Amino acid sequence: MQKTIDAFWRAAAYCLHPRVIWLSLLPLVVAGVLSVGLAHFYWEGAVAGVRQGLDSWAISQTLLGWLDTVGASGFRAVIAPLIVVVLAVPLLVVLSLLLVATLMMPALVRLVVQRRFAGLEVRHEAPWWTSLSWSLGATLIAVLVMVVSVPLWLIPPFGLILPPLIWGWLTYRVMAFDALAGHATVQERVTLLQDHRMPLLMMGVVSGYLGAAPTALWAVLGAISVVVAPLLIIASVWLYTLVFAFSSLWFSHYLLAALRDLRAADPTPQLVILDPA
Questions:
Q1: CA-only gyration radius of the chain, Å
Q2: Of 24, 145, 218, 240, which sits with the fewest C-beta atoms within 10 Å of its C-beta?
């Protein structure tokens, strides 16, 4: 626990580094342009499709009728856009995580190595496609679990627990691999991920709850979020980027220190085994 907390505060301090702030703008630009472009071309069609679906479902008609009886008929106009927003937020999370892992993570790991682990030997460097395939595989699993578990999100306890657990597991899988990809051998990586599974998963879950902050922004604004959706999309992407950048630094500090300790305990160089693919 002490090593986890130490890595946490180091990561928080590194977030104030000018290079980290500058790097956070690159995924923001990419995701912002993509999100605004998709909203421009597909927002009206998506809202119309959701509204058509609501009109065809007996359950939704019953709910809308009940809203009319309680004097909330004005909610009819915003319920379809709100559903589109709710469905878009998980996609923003995944997009931000993949952008950080692809565009920021290597540079953040190098920053941590240069400033704290300059003497750490590079025994193996995983090819970029290995890291990409690992991230995409973990993302696919997380998205499938998310889709299957969505009905449970409507139940208050599960709605507060399941999303951070899913994003936490995904963050843990992606960040832990990338933190070690540039230095550790395959055997070292497997050993560290097994020996530190619970602390790493806990770090991922904490990161998942930190990642709930942009979602809370949508919830606080409520119906107003529909009006300012393009601006909120950009703001959310930037917040997600900062959260995942912090997570990258947290995992890098923790795992590179663990790699250093592992090698200090067994200084004999290990056989380098290249990743398949």
A1: 21
A2: 145
Tokens standing for 72? 């909330």
Global pTM exceeds 0.85: no
The two tokens of residue 86 are 């709710």
pLDDT in tens, 91-146: 766 776 677 777 788 888 989 999 999 888 888 877 778 877 888 888 889 888 88
Q: How many CB atoms lie within 10 A of CB 20?
A: 20
Q: Which residues of 171-194 are buried (b: 16+ CB within 10 A; e: fewer)?
A: bbbbbbbbbbbbbbbbebbebbbe
Q: How far is CA 221 from CA 10, 79, 87, 232, in A?
A: 33, 14, 16, 10
User: Amino acid identity, residue 179?
Assistant: A
Beta-carbon contacts of 251 under 8 Å, excluding residues fewer than 6 positions away, are 7, 172, 175, 176, 178, 179, 200, 203
Looking from the CA of 183 toward its CB, the CA atoms found within 13 Å total: 24
Alpha carbons 205 and 89: distance in angstroms, whole number: 18
